[in-house]
Amino acid sequence: MEYINFIAEYYKTSQLSGREKRILFLFLTFFILICMFFFLFINLYSSKYNYLLLICFIAMFSLATSAILIKSMVRFYLNTTNNKMVVKIQEGMEAKYKLEALEKNIDKIVSERTLNLENANFSLIQTIEVRNQIEKSLLESKKRYFALFNNNPVAIVTVDKNLKVTSCNIAKIKSGRTPINGDVMYVDYAAKHEADMYAELKECIDKGVEKDFPELKYNNKYLNIRMAPFFDGAIIASINITDIKNAEKTVHVLTREILRKQEMERRNIALNLHDNVAQELASLKISCDSIMSDRDEASKQTKSKVANFSKVLQGSISSVRNIAYELQPPNLSQLGLSQTIFRLCEDFTEQNNIVVKFHSAGIDNLTLNFETSINIFRLVQEALTNIKKYAGPTIASVKIVAAFPNIIIRIDDFGKGFNVTQRLKTLVDEKKTGIQNMKERAGMLGGNFKLRSEVNRGTKIHVEIPMPTSELEKIENQRVAH
After folding, report:
1. How many whole angstroms separate alpha carbon 258 and alpha carbon 423?
2. Distances from the Cα of 154 to the Cα of 172, 226, 231, 448, angstroms
3. How far apart are the C-alpha atoms of 409 and 233, rounded to whole Å?
């Protein structure tokens, strides 16, 4: 196979020298001429010796040609072998040079690789230390979380994204019925809330929003429930505020009773002041005026003193009557709520130079009990007092409208105004209870109290009080009749 490849390579490349080519050309020319001569001679003189001579000549020519060709092929083989050896020698020399260069740089390469390995090892050690610290911190955080979770006095339940219970703390276990891990919250467990708590919890998880239910009724209890997204689920904290609600109801009843007693005391004091003190002072004034009427011989100085005494008595009588009016407006039971508040606004305008516009609608058609009437009157009275103290020069308006099923009270002024948040924070420290009293009176009647104010833009009070049950029934009967 190697010989065939060699012959093919030989014929691909011309390896004959110029001298060999000339000799072959002369041999070929001479061979052709001899052949022509012998063919001609044989045709003329046929003889077996002539054939022998021709054969001998051809053999000699072939041997010479073969010798030349063999020599050329041998030389080609030697050249080819020598070239391969030269290439191998050159490759060996290059490898030797590379090896020598590598040997020269081996120390440098080893030093660099060693330094790189040391740096990598140092980085790995630092990474391991950081990871150990992180794992330690995570472990401590986990312990702290479990301690806070389990020992928290607030009942806590956690759920996954499918609303299934995953855990609950000790407070939840002690609170009564305990959810089982895997229960669907607000379906398998705690499904007796008035609100759709399942939908609320699902929205909390899906939208990542917090939910707060300050007073949610559950069976015969009241709960303060808060939901918040927690990992891939939610955490639910609940506080039983039933005792607080009962206490609030008790306080509400007591406050209502205190205010009722207070109004009764005010009524009694007002009657005593009006019927006794004011009448006695009036009698004393009349007596004082009549002392000097029959004594012409009295000096001017004496008459002046008696006149001053009479003037002081008249002022005392006015003050007593004003106090009696503030303690218990006599017109409330005689004229009704609307007319009494109308006169209150007129007197306030006259005494304080603050214009108060009053408007009412539908109130005269209602038959309000004394408790409702007096509390609405006190609420308006307290609001006007606050306007006098804090609003400055302004114009105010009082509106009372009966709009089924509520009585709506609007008290607005266009005075100085104030920051509601800051004012509410300072009320306790300053021991001012005006706003709180209005809230309590509205709450005592089952109503809502709203206060809005802005600096230099005035104050607005909006109160909605449910109509008494008797009035609601009367209105309902009238509707049915029509």
Report:
1. 26
2. 8, 11, 20, 30
3. 46
* Contacts for 413 with CB less than 8 Å, ≥ 6 apart: 387, 391, 394, 395, 396, 397, 458, 459
Q: Which residue has the tokens 């002369």?
A: 26
> Strand, helix or coil at 403?
strand
**348-387 residue pLDDT tens:** 888 888 899 999 998 888 888 878 888 888 899 889 988 8
Contacts of 448 (CB under 8 A, 6+ apart): 442, 463, 464
Domain boundaries, the chain: 2-142, 155-240, 251-328, 334-482
Top-tier CATH class for 155-240:
alpha beta
Locate all alpha helices (DSSP H) within 387-482, ordered by sequence: 420-430, 434-444, 469-481
Alpha-carbon span 404 to 406, nearest angstrom: 5
Distance between CA atoms of residues 359 and 348, nearest Å: 15
Per residue in 73-94, pLDDT tens?
666 666 666 666 667 767 777 8
Which residues of the chain, if any, have pLDDT below 70?
1-28, 30-31, 33-54, 57-58, 61, 64-66, 68-69, 71-86, 89, 256, 259, 263, 266-268, 270-304, 306, 309-310, 313-315, 317-331, 427-432, 470-482
Whole-structure pTM value: 0.49
Query: How crowded is the C-beta side of 365, counted as CA atoms within 13 Å?
Result: 13
Positions of E strands within 174-274? 211-218, 221-230, 233-240
Q: How far apart are CA 413 and CA 453, in angstroms?
A: 10
Per the DSSP assignment, residues forming a β-bridge with 461 are: 411, 451
CATH architecture of the domain with residue range 334-482:
2-Layer Sandwich (3.30)
H-run or E-run covering 68: helix 48-151
